[in-house]
Amino acid sequence: MKDSNHPSLLQIDDSMLTRESWKIFQIMTEFVDGFEKLARIKPSVSIFGSARTPADDPIYQLGEEIAYKLSDSGFAVVTGGGPGIMEAANKGAKQGKAPSIGVNIQLPFEQRTNEYQDISLGFRHFFSRKVMFVKYASAYVILPGGFGTLDELAEILTLVQTGKTLPIPIILVHTPFWQGLIDWFRSSLCKAGTIEESDLDLFHLVDTPDEVVQIIFDFYESRGFEIEPSPEEREKLMEL
Questions:
Q1: Which of 6, 18, 38, 75 counts the highest number of beta carbons within 10 A?
Q2: pLDDT at 1 (0 to 100)
Q3: Do 132 and 32 contact (CB within 8 A), yes or no?
Q4: Residue 13, CA distances (Å) to 16, 20, 57, 164, 187 in order
Q5: Rounded CA gap, 177 and 21, in Å?
Q6: Does a structural domain hold residue 115?
Q7: Distance CA 123, CA 31 (A)
Q8: CATH code for the domain of 191
Q9: What range defines the domain where residue 162 resides?
Q10: What is the separation of C-alpha 80 from the centre of its chain, rounded to a whole number of angstroms?
């Protein structure tokens, strides 16, 4: 309801409404740019992990080696484009045969673009950026991380569990970090009936780069990477 006694409030409301309306075009631009740059890059693997992991940390080195092996096996590697594990993955991918891709986000702190990207995209909105991670991924590889990493893990598990995207390998790396969370899934979520015991089969827990690569190849051995999605699968991807 408009209040004629507060003309300044009306002006602010109109200004905010205009800004919100124009934001639609900003979001559209991000989607179009992402789709155009990533749609032809197949197969690809999205790799996640903490932005705070230093280069001398064994987990950083593990991420670099995983990305190198994936890239050298023909997988483009997609990360959030920032420091830490993201930098490690882009760095490893850069040394391999396939493209190293960064899907960067503008943040008030912590995020800086790493230098190891063949293709770099910039986003202001987390939700449009998250679509790019999922839409063209042949697998998800998740190393130790914080809230953002957990957000991506929950996102892909939910999409696969609910059938809103195609099943893909979801691989958690480094057992000592993830085991407590998985135990909690089993003891709390399964026990409460909020997930099924079979939902724990949606992901793998591994410790070595070779295991990561092998799981992905085993998954696609019968399907093949170049097979076109069926009409039903294509419909799922269009609704993502």
A1: 75
A2: 47
A3: no
A4: 5, 10, 49, 37, 49
A5: 43
A6: yes
A7: 9
A8: 3.40.50.450
A9: 7-239
A10: 7
pLDDT at res. 128 = 77
Three-point CA angle 132, 137, 143, nearest 5°:
95
* Number of compact structural domains in the chain: 1
For residue 164, is it within any domain?
yes
Q: In whole angstroms, give the CA distance from residue 38 to residue 146.
A: 26
- The backbone region for 207, taken as left when phi is positive above 0, alpha when psi lies in -120 to 50, beta otherwise, is alpha
DSSP the chain: ---TT-HHHHHHHHHHHHHHHHHHHHHHHHHHHHHHHHTT--SEEEEE--TT--TTSHHHHHHHHHHHHHHHTT-EEEE-SSSTHHHHHHHHHHTSSS-EEEEEE--SSS----S--SEEEEES-HHHHHHHHHHT-SEEEE-S--HHHHHHHHHHHHHHHTTSS----EEEE-HHHHHHHHHHIIIIIIHHTSS-GGGGGG-EEE-SHHHHHHHHHHHHTTT-SSPPPPHHHHHHHHH-
pLDDT of residue 201: 97
Q: Average pLDDT per run of 10 along the chain, which is 240 residues long?
A: 52 68 76 76 94 97 98 95 96 97 74 87 78 88 97 95 93 98 98 98 98 96 63 64
CA 140 – CA 45 distance, rounded (Å): 6
Residue 143 has a pLDDT of 98
